[in-house]
Amino acid sequence: MPGYLKCDACKAIAFQMKDYLVKAESKRTAVKGKGAALSESEYVDTLEHCCSQKWEQYGLKEVHGFKRLSGPGLETADKMGMVMYGGPWPKRIFTVIKYSQWYKNCQLYSA
């Protein structure tokens, strides 16, 4: 992922994680009642499901002369312009996730 797109990628990832967690929590509340929290394993499963998605709803868009990622949760989604979906961008977003998970695990095990 090019450096100038990393902020957009992280925002997209955070948006998707929040969206997946909100949906999982609302399902849990519907089944178990108000105030029922997700278990740790449900959080892990939800986040793994989120991170393993295809990320195809994100693409590259030129906004005010700069290339930016565009898709759900990003401010560029509402800007006028053509979006180039597919190509290397979904894979690059997934690579950002894999790298951040690898880095977190390295910190966890080196402590």
Could you characterize what this model shows?
The chain has 111 residues and is mainly alpha-helical. It has one domain. 55% of the residues lie in helices and 12% in strands. It contains three helices and three strands; from the N terminus they run ααβββα. Strand 1 (59-63) and strand 2 form a beta hairpin. Helix 1 (6-32) crosses helix 2 (40-51). The model has no long low-confidence stretch (mean pLDDT 86).
Short description:
It comes from Acipenser ruthenus. By secondary structure, the protein is mainly α.
Q: What's the helix and strand layout?
A:
Layout: H1 6-32, H2 40-51, E1 59-63, E2 66-70, E3 83-85, H3 89-110
Helix pairs in contact: 1-2
Going across the biggest sheet, name each strand in turn. 2-1-3
Instruction: Please state roughly what percent of the residues sit in beta strands, choosing from under 5%, 5-15%, 15-25%, 25-35%, 35-45% or over 45%.
Output: 5-15%
Average pLDDT reading: 86
Bulk shape: elongated
Structural class: mainly alpha
Low-confidence stretches: none
Helix content: 40-55%
Major β-sheet profile: 3 strands, antiparallel
Radius of gyration from the CA trace? 16 Å
Let me know the number of strands: 3
Overall number of structural domains: 1
First-to-last CA distance: 28 Å
Reading the helices and strands in chain order gives: HHEEEH
Q: Helical region count? A: 3
